[in-house]
Prior knowledge:
Order of helices and strands of chain A: HHHHHHHHHH
Strand content of chain B: under 5%
Distance between the termini of chain A: 35 Å
Number of strands of chain A: 0
Order of helices and strands of chain B: HHHHHH
Structural class of chain B: mainly alpha
Radius of gyration of chain A: 28 Å
Oligomer: heterodimer
Amino acid sequence: MFQVQHGAALYTHLAGAAVVSVILFFALTLVPTKLRRPLIMAVTFAAGLFYALEFFWPVSGPESDQKNFLTSYIKPFSDITTVLQSFALGLGVYSLVSIHMRKVARTQSGWAYSLVLIVSMIVMVIAHIGKEYIKSPWVHQLNEFAYSGLMKSLDATMFSIIAFYIVSAAYRAFRIRSTEATILLVSAGIIMLGQVAIGQAITNAIPNEGLTANLRVENMANWILKKVNSPAIMAIDFGLGVGGLATALRLWLSLERGSYFEEEL
Amino acid sequence: MKEETVKLIVILLGVASTLGIYSILYKENKVFRFFEHLYLGLAAGYSISAAWNDILRPQWWTLMMIEGRWWMLFAIPAAMMFYMIYSKQNSWMSRLIFGLFLGATAGQTFQAFAADYFPKFRTAASKAVMDLPEVNQPGAYGLTPFSAALNNVLFMVILASVMTYFFFSFEQKGKVIPSVSKFGRYTLMVAFGALFGSTIMARMSLLIGRMYFLIHDFVQVQLLHMQ
């Protein structure tokens, strides 16, 4: 049934699929209210069950490529969810555009900035998608201006600005004279000094061989990252993993409660 | 338009946007607001075009229209369910597709936990007592098997103490647990300090990059014609 088609047969099949889609969509609108929640729960459970079964089902085959009957469907399923996620991007775009369009239409305060946002978004879409299809140099130049000229610079500058704010945050954090704040300051200082030439120059007199080499600032920074930072982050990661697993189980079994999950359908 | 002109305009746009964003460091102003909205618009536009160029075109459109996998058309009604959120009568249909994603994410989380977290801990734990690979590695200055073992044990002690700090299922009473928890808190501070230092350095390198662009690419090369 699901065979690759080409030429006129492809268009016939596409038309057929479109008709089936419309019928299915229409049929869904007819689902009675009391069946809606069980249907959502069943779909949620089935999607999670797919991954759980794939994990638990006995595997066979050569040791380097052991798999079961579900393993080969993992990638297509993941691909189709990526495609659907991309379609869902439209939700965010619609929300952004509708808010700013309303501002422009009503000439509310700051409407000109909203207009800038909408125009720049359209220009970027035309330039970045257009360069894939249109050979004309103006599209490529427009993409150069929008992407290389503005977007890349704005992106880097916006993130570099955090450097200024982080210094003020550090000042406030280090004003709290506690043991913890001191440890934080010393650790951050060693890491920063270990990454720059001027910091490394401080302990340059210490020979780079033997036990004393451990006192060089770059080696201390490396030790902190490998032997203190790694296990601490691993422990936090494990906590996050356990929490994530608990939440995942609640979602999978539709046990989660709250406004979104308890609303009338 | 000549290539040189395009290059010059790109640099001028870069200079204007860099200075425009940095103007916030003085105070909130209209120039910053303009470039802020420009950035948001460009970033949103870029997300849309990247979604088409990198995902939808190769993984959906090409498969459906070029390779002839006509059943990929069913992605459209599935995706349309997202947009039913705007329909009062049929908004429940959006939950159907969100449910699919929640279930799939739950399954992936489970797989990641079982296949990723446990082996990682087993490796860390076995390394603490069995494995001493760092002794002869480059950069292992004066590291003896004893100090390597000590490092590995310290790794496990920190791991255990930080986990104890985050253990809230019972009250931390007595002498041992609060002490271990306190040690965990201190090592967490070292880790946060390391992360904080790394973040500062990463942002500083971006700042240096922008300064280099302004001073070298714009002032020296474009204005003073120095290479």
